[in-house]
Each structure stands twice: as structure tokens, then as C-alpha cells.
Amino acid sequence: MTRTIFTALLGALVLALVPGGARADAAAGEETFKGNGCMDCHYTDGPAKEKTIDDQLAKKGPELWYAGSKFQQEWLQAWLAKPEPIRPMAYNSLTEKNPADHPALSGDDVANVTEFLMGLTSDAVEAGKVKPKKNPKGRLIFTKKMPCSGCHQYESKKGLTGGLMGPTLVGAGTRLNPDWILAYLMQPEVFKPVKMMPVFVGILREKDMQNVAAYVANFK
Amino acid sequence: MTRLKAIAALIACLGFVAAGPAAAEVDAEKVYKFYCAQCHGLEGKGDGPNVYKDFPVSPRNFTNAAEMDKLSDADMRNVIRDGGPSVSKSPMMPPWGKTISDEEVDALVGHLRKLCACEGKKG
After folding, report:
1. Which of A51, A183, B3, B47 could form a disulfide with A125 if both were Cys (CB 3.0 to 4.6 A apart)?
2. Domains with residue ranges and CATH for chain B
């Protein structure tokens, strides 16, 4: 008798702890997103709303309306359950370090919100254009010809290096969709009309953008 | 009385006209803080948060009048628009010509002159 109760309790506990036991549900994820204050800092309806520097500085977190085109699903699911700093500095701050206090989700909410966010896509991303690889040309652009490393951390042969104002690119290979990286470089007006990163359209050719995207998409 | 009112209206009008172009004017400090301070520092000392320990070249210290005096306004405009390599300097100084407008570049040159309190080379 005690044993049956114990087994039932254990079963319930396992069900509660393992997300994805039930099938992920985007609609439930949207409710969770709206009910948990996520909207206080993130907007999920495109197109981009920022027109001026003030618009960008007024935001408390990155826009998520193209999350499904930007992120890899596995990474997103893991991050929502256990968020780790991505931007070394606090959002929009030149002086404060990232406080590493992003709210975490648990239980079914993790898979549901992942499902909801992965459904938010942008047609501006063309699939199959970028294959992650070592790419010496991309490396040359990233580390020497262009100032990318001045604002983004990455693992060089000598270890962690790079500037702090951009999101870290350590682990970009598991976090970002390679085709989105290219689309981001080629169509900044679609994804980020106002940002602290320079526009490289007209400075880097499409082929160069493809090379540097392939290089970044290969970061461990 | 009516006359006073008319004068008041006229003054209000003048105020409005004067405010028009002022509102469209570039806020150089805001533009500087957003794009440049990340490397050159909020006060222009070359110590922004991007400058990690093995940053290959120090971003120009804009408060160093002796160094800044060597640059003409045109030199500054060129390097801001086309980046370090366009004037044989480091590629770590990015090209901003596709990001910020010509008016903003001009306003930034003015702001850098304030930071260095220097006139710069003529021509």
C-alpha cells in the first residue's frame, strides 16, 4: 500500500520535472510568456519598432519577434531553463556588468515557451546559404580586416578575447542559426535598424559576409 | 490689449519657427555616447568597455590636444566615415559611413573638438 502511493508520487514527480513529457504547446507557451512578465522587456510582434537611438535605449531587453529564425531550438530550450549571460555588459549599459539575473522557466513552461518563440520567424532569412566551417577568409575578416573582435568576445587560439559591448560569440555555433547571421549582416534595417554595431552593407561584399558568417557559425 | 495679444502671438510664432530647426539638429553627445564611447570612453579618454586587455591599439584619446591637433576636420570626417585603414590606421577603428548620416558625422567632429579643446590642422 505505502509502496503504491510512493510509486504514484514518484511518477508524478518525474512527470512534473521532465519537460517534454507532454507535447510542447505553442499556445500555452504564449500564455506563459504573457503571464510571466516576459513582455515587460521583450516584444514579439515585428517588424522592428526602433527608429531612433532613444527607441533602442528605452528597451529593457532584446526584441524576440524573429526568435525562431535566430536561435537553434535546443539551445533556446536549455537557456530558458538555465539562463547564462550572453552580453558581457548589462543591456544598453556602458558601465554595469551583466547582473546574470535573467528569470528562468521550469517544468512544461520551458518546452511550451520554446515552441512559441521558435514559431516567430522572419521571411528575410534565406535557408541553406551558410555552412559553418573554419573558413580562413572569414577568419581574416573577423580578426584582422574588420573590427568585429573589437566588440565581440570569442575563443581565439590564445583563449578568450574580444570586446564587451556586443553579445558574446562564444558558442555562436550552437546558439545562432547560420543563415540568420548572414541575413543580419545583409539586412540590418530588417532586424536592427538602430544598434551600436556598424552597418557593413556596401563595405563587405556578399561573399565576404557569407565567409564571415560561416566562420562565426563555427564558434564553439 | 488686442495689440498686446498680436505681439504675443507674433512672439509665439517666432519661438515656434526658431524651435523647428533646433529640434531637427543632431544631438552630438547622444550620438557619441551610443556609437563611440564603447571604445573611446564616455569622456573620450580611450578607455571604453570594449578595450579589453589585449586590444591591439588604443582607441584615440580625444582629450590629448597635442595628438588631436594633428588632425584637420576633414581628416576626422574621413576616418569616421571610412574607418582606420582609410588613413593607414588600425581596422579596429570601424567605418561608420553606412551607419550614421553626414550631418551626424559633422556634429561628431564638433563634439571631438570640444573634448580636445583644440582647433586642429587647417585644410
Report:
1. A183
2. 26-116 (1.10.760.10)
